[in-house]
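Practice problem: predict the structure.
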Amino acid sequence: MSGNFGLKINEEVLAKMASVAAMEVEGVHAISTKISDIKGIVDRGFNKGVKATVASDGEITLDVYISIKQEANVKDVAAAVQQNVKEKVQNMTGSAVSRVNVHIADVELTKTEE
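Answer:
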């Protein structure tokens, strides 16, 4: 008997997995909503800033929109988010993640005390 049971994971579930993995990275303030995506503004879910797409061959592509902390290094945070999201989603699903696109949608500015 083959190990392939025809398992299909809903794209919203994949997006939620990616959201959780992205929030684990130091320097990430929040998952952001894409400004140009009206559906993302209407959605109330935790994964509102993550879009998951599954190709016919089962490969997963993820677009993650994040807000970073003011003191964070953008390049380092984006690379860490890519790595963590890819590893976590692949480990949880057993499917290949072909691409993780990280979009810096906002920077959380900290207020200075006077």
